[in-house]
């Protein structure tokens, strides 16, 4: 495969195309400055304005959220697993019906495998613009987002209405629900009982791993971060490994399905039969199935990357496993 053939499968950080109207809280004060990115797969955006960089099915979706300081993403849930790792900034994740069941603060490289069926939100509590990368289980990402009732109500007060089919309408632009299409129903109190509210101890102990701990574990061989045998023992539909300078190898290998490389620190030279490129933090590369390739740091200094590959397992639920 030539470099020209591979180019559409490499998304550079500086070329990411944001959507500022991706979700129902796009006008809600405190959430109206966030940018959403869909990198691989269709994602869960509710806006037709969302750009998809790589539409090739991988068995999972990859996206990102970029937010200035004190900007938050409202409480929501997914029907499939959602894994975040911090690319830059300092982030507070919180969960529960009202967002007060528990919370954790994550720094660069930290990873959070958020269990299915739990309302969660997050905010940038750092001093600069921050970015978190997200992996969602399944090719269809579970059919969209489930919003906490107050999020839908707040959005309506600021001009955004979500249809029962998951499409956004902006009344400030003169848009209205089509005839015969109703608004997205708000969850009833009885339905809300089905969304667990685990404590901070329960969630952090089982589903959060710190970057420097993983780096230490990956000093000689890649660290299996998420997977059936991972340090987070879960089967969300994909596996995640962390590779460091000490565990990288120039030996070529291949997978029978597409895999994804996502540098966290340093610059990485990726070689394959037919070409080569260098990836920087924030870049995302989709490696085609059956293509021999390798990835090694190209410069001195700290160098780590996450490697993601689908497993074909159900993409949830994960809570309680």
UniProtKB/TrEMBL annotation:
Keyword tags: Isomerase
GO molecular function per UniProt: isomerase activity
Isomerase recorded as keyword: yes
Domain Cupin type-2 stretches: 72-132
Pfam families recorded: Cupin_2
Top-level taxon: Bacteria
Protein name, UniProt field: Mannose-6-phosphate isomerase, cupin superfamily
């Amino acid at each position: 495969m030539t470099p020209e053939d591979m180019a559409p499968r490499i998304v550079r950080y500086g070329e990411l195309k944001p959507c500022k109207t991706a979700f129902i809280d796009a006008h809600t004060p405190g959430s109206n400055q966030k940018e959403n990115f869909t990198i691989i797969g269709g994602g869960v955006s509710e806006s037709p304005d969302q750009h998809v960089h790589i539409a090739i099915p991988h068995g999972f979706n990859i996206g990102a959220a970029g937010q200035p300081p004190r900007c938050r993403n409202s409480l929501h849930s997914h029907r499939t697993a959602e894994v975040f790792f911090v690319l830059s900034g300092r982030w507070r994740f919180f969960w529960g019906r009202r967002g007060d069941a528990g919370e954790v603060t994550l720094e660069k490289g930290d990873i959070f495998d958020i269990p299915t069926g739990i309302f969660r939100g997050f905010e940038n509590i750092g001093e600069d613009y921050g970015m978190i990368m997200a992996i969602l289980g399944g090719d269809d990402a579970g059919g969209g987002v489930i919003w906490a009732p107050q999020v839908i109500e707040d959005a309506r007060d600021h001009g955004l209405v979500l249809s029962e089919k998951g499409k956004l309408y902006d009344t400030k632009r003169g848009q209205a629900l089509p005839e015969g299409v109703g608004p997205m129903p708000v969850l009833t109190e009885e339905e809300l009982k089905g969304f667990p509210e685990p404590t901070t101890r329960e969630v952090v102990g089982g589903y959060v791993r710190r970057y420097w701990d993983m780096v230490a574990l990956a000093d000689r061989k890649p660290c299996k971060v998420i997977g059936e045998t991972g340090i987070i023992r879960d089967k969300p539909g994909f596996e995640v490994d962390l590779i460091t300078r000490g565990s990288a190898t120039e030996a070529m290998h291949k997978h029978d399905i597409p895999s994804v490389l996502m540098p966290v620190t340093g610059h990485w030279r990726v070689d394959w039969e037919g070409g080569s490129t260098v990836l920087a933090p924030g870049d995302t590369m989709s490696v085609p199935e059956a293509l021999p390739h390798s990835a090694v740091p190209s410069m001195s200094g700290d160098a780590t990357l996450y490697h993601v590959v689908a497993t074909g397992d159900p993409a949830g639920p994960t809570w309680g496993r």
